[in-house]
Design goal:
This protein is an alpha+beta fold and about 425 residues long. The chain has ten helices and 18 strands. The structure holds zinc ion (ZN) (2 copies).
Length: about 425
């Protein structure tokens, strides 16, 4: 009787923290299970079933499939209010695990026609386990929640296999935020850049937009039966053609002047990288075509489209000046991960309540498809540290490395942070009684 009275008098925050502690061992166990059974994007069949089964056990309404293997859980609180969404990505990477763990992955599969190893090298196993933990915590305080929590378990954050759609863009397209209509969305990423116990976020642009480009420079192969010492040769007579290798070289250098000389980089940094360049077959033949591919990173949507225009102009005008032509194609990838400033300001105190180690980070030029949700509704994406405390950021293997290691003692903070954000957000926007 006395114990019950104590339980009833506990605040919602205390009950959430207690429940988070209780579910933590289960979350770790679940993370190990998923870690040992990683699946690539759009192929998360086992993970998806595990998620749906678990949500149903908790009495949460389940919608599946969405966006191939996605699962949506809808938890309706006991009081009227708004709708808050939480996202976890479920996919692993084509990487052979090199971490020596009892639950190490030995999975193999085919990816774009090649046989590969599969590993949760980006920590999405932890994201799924944490969000299932959050679902359990919030179910236990369901009657006190003013509003609805939508759990978005998303496939293919790392990109869908060739020729397939997937990830957050497809979740949004298939109505993940529409029924019920989500008012704000939150997501987290575990990282070895910060230590266990730390949270990092940034208001506004936090992660980059990523786009790729392909430039084909068409010159004119020197041709004709030009005979020198009885051998047919071409490279000796460049004036008879248009050399696309020299033109391409000028383009590579000029592209670097877009971030360094043309953009106002005091507003936000940007990067243009040529990652591969191909042309020609031997030393004394001038080829007729050179192809280069590269990536563009930007932190501002206006700068992003400006860079695209400048890349086209630079390549085409330099080609023209040399008598060549350039075909430029730009494929847009993920938008800027943009943390809504008002929402971030509203929720930052909650993050500071769950840990004293909150870092306002520099933007990163990595990308996240969480940004597609943020294009639809205000969102906040933050990082949770899973680097062992005795390691420095330089020593720790980064996400995507075959040595990427998650210190599980950091997962509890992820559960508490998300569950408290849910409760605080819903209470802050609840209709007054
Ligand atoms: Zn990743
Ligand atoms: Zn990731």
């Amino acid at each position: 009787m006395i114990l019950m009275a104590v339980a009833v008098s506990m605040t919602l925050d205390q009950r959430i923290d207690d429940a988070a502690k209780t579910v933590e061992p289960k979350v770790i166990e679940c993370r190990r299970d998923i870690h040992q059974h990683p699946e690539l994007g759009n192929r998360e069949f086992r993970t998806s079933k595990l998620v749906a089964d678990r949500l149903r056990q908790l009495g949460i309404e389940v919608r599946t499939p969405i966006a191939h293997t996605g699962v949506i859980g809808i938890l309706r609180g006991g009081k009227p209010g708004r709708v808050v969404g939480f996202r976890a990505d479920m996919d692993a990477l084509p990487v052979v695990e090199q971490v020596d763990l009892p639950f190490k992955s030995t999975a193999r599969t085919t990816y774009n026609g090649q046989e590969v190893g599969v590993m949760h090298a980006c920590g999405h196993d932890a994201h799924v386990a944490i969000l299932l933990g959050v679902a359990e915590v919030l179910s236990s305080v369901r009657s006190e929640l003013p509003g609805t929590v939508v759990f978005l378990f998303q496939p293919a954050e790392e990109g869908a296999p060739q020729g397939e759609e997937g990830g957050a863009a497809l979740m949004v397209k298939e109505g993940a935020l529409d029924n019920p209509k989500v008012d704000a969305v939150f997501g987290l990423h575990v990282t070895s850049r910060i230590a266990v116990g730390e949270i990092a976020y940034r208001p506004g642009a936090e992660m980059a937009a990523v786009d790729s480009f392909r430039i084909k420079v068409h010159g004119k192969q020197t041709h004709g039966a030009i005979k020198v010492h009885g051998r047919q040769t071409h490279g000796a007579y460049p004036w008879l053609g248009v050399d696309p290798i020299v033109v391409a070289s000028q383009i590579v250098l000029a592209l670097q002047t877009i971030p360094s000389r043309q953009l106002d980089i005091s507003l936000a940094p940007a990067v243009v990288t040529v990652g591969a360049i191909h042309g020609g077959v031997r030393n004394n033949i001038i080829p007729d075509e050179v192809e280069m591919i590269g990536t563009i990173r930007s932190l501002d949507e206006k700068m992003r489209s400006d860079i695209h225009q400048r890349i086209k102009r630079t390549a085409q005008d330099i080609a023209t000046s040399g008598g060549a032509t350039a075909d430029v194609t730009i494929e847009t990838g993920y938008p800027v991960t943009y943390n809504d400033p008002a929402l971030t300001e509203k929720m930052a105190p909650t993050l500071r309540k769950v840990t004293s180690a909150v870092i306002v980070m520099n933007p990163t030029l990595g990308a996240e498809d969480f940004s597609f949700y943020q294009q639809k509704v205000p969102g906040l994406f933050f990082f949770v540290g899973t680097r062992p405390k005795n390691q420095t950021a330089e020593e720790a293997a980064s996400n995507h490395s075959p040595l990427f290691y998650v210190d599980e003692s950091g997962l509890g903070l992820g559960i508490r942070a998300m569950a408290r954000v849910a409760a605080d957000y819903l209470r802050s926007v609840a209709p007054s009684p």
